[in-house]
Every structure is written in structure tokens, then in C-alpha cells.
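User: Run a structure prediction on this.
Assistant: Running it now.
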Amino acid sequence: MSGYTSSLLDGIAGLLDEAGVGVFQPDDVIEDPATGIFRGVMPDSPDRAIGLTAYPVEDTDLTDAITGVQIRMRAGRDPDAIDDMADSVWGVLHNRRQYRVGDIYVALSWRQSQAWIGQDTQGRMELTSNYYFRTTRSGSHLID
């Protein structure tokens, strides 16, 4: 059984895959020209890649939580390509309401911020977006 963070990230990767933003195949190598979706560290290839990493934003004594997900994007050397990729991710996730990813209920997701990272060592453009997910997260010491 997957935990909260794994279910959330796998579910987001699945949504992006279903929308045609990239390819999420955790056990397979993804090759150019496909856009690979990865959890955590992005490999050196393919040239077009999306990396997902979660971090807590707000945990209270209730089951309501806000979890941030950094979405790091790389799209070759064309600045339009990285902007188009970011727009595609935004189209799937921003202001999306009342849906499930894996076993996780998401009341609302939105883009909180975005910034250019610059170029990697191979000259490929990169940027990062931070999306927030208002979820229901149960726990043994939380008030339902």
C-alpha cells in the first residue's frame, strides 16, 4: 500500500501522462523525443523532462492538509518549448477542483509560483513551478 506522498505524486504524474504532457513509466527508460515524467531526480535524458518532488506546506490537527509539489521542467534550448510545457502543466493542474489522485482526495490545486532556473550543463532551458494541493490526509493523531 502506497503512502500519502507516493499516492499523490504518482497520481499527479498519471494526470500529466493522461493529458499528454509527458510519459510516466516508472520502471522503463524514456528516450527522446518523449517528455519523461520522473519522481525526484531527473536523469540526464531525455532532453524534455518533468521532475516531481513533494514538500509539506500546512499540516494542522485536522485532516485538511496543503502539500506543495515542485514541478521542475526541462525542454531543450528553445525558450518557447519550456514556456509551452509550463502552460500545459498549468492547464492540467491550476484551479482544478474536487478530484482524486490515487487514494488521495484533492479539494483544490493551484500554481503558487514559478521561476526560471536557467540552463543546465547541456544548455537546456529549465524552470520550476510550485503547485499547492489542498487534500484530505488522515492520521492517527488527527481530528476527523
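The mean pLDDT is 91.
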